[in-house]
Amino acid sequence: MTPRDRYQTWDAAYVLGALARDDRHEYEDHLSDCPSCRTAVAELSGIPAVLSMLDLDEVSALDDEQPEPPLRPEVLTSVIDRVRARRRRTRAMTLAAVAVAAAMLSLALALVVKPELFGRDARTDEQASAPLLTMAKVSETPINASVALTGYGWGTRIDMACSYGDWGQSPHSTPPQDLGMVVVGHDGTRSQIATWLGLSGATALPSGTTPMAADDIKAVQLVSTHDGRVLLEKQL
């Protein structure tokens, strides 16, 4: 047996204070240049506290065959294994808790720094007062409408207020009833973002959303979905 092998079983006895004074001094000298033994002692450092929480029944349960002496080597090994397993579980739970806390902190910071990522814009007051823009008539129609554009991080919401008037007095024999809201981009793209049924003498408040930023929108149109005819338009 090499001198190093001689100390392999001294760690638990050292932690429990079971070494004689001379052996304890000898082992401490050995620890100064043996990393593996220092690691073993560190892992077992919590055993005295754990043992202090065990009552006689728990110790007996670990050593059913021979209750005397109360801590045979195999019993001590079982206790050590329990301590190490408990430390591993505690370490894993701590890491998981830290990860959850970090994720929640990141989410909170993102909500504060970039609220638009969650559909919230820091410019709430500005959006609440978005002006209504009157739409110009492109075709003869009794419909009057205004639009308001609200910008978000993900795009733009467009709200429209339509007043249809009395279609019975319109010179058109079959006025359009199926209506739509169309967004025209500066790049020439067109997308219909809302449809609704127009009724004579009624008022409607349709709204729609587009991924285009407000600055990328060239015009908003109110169209007849039956034939695509543009009835009203607001150039931006």
TrEMBL record:
Domain of life: Bacteria
TM ranges: 92-113
Keyword Membrane applies: yes
InterPro entries to which the protein is assigned, alphabetical: Anti_sigma_zinc_sf, Znf_put
Keywords: Membrane, Transcription, Transcription regulation, Transmembrane, Transmembrane helix
Ranges of residues in domain Putative zinc-finger: 13-38
Identification of the protein by name: Transmembrane transcriptional regulator [Microbacterium testaceum StLB037]
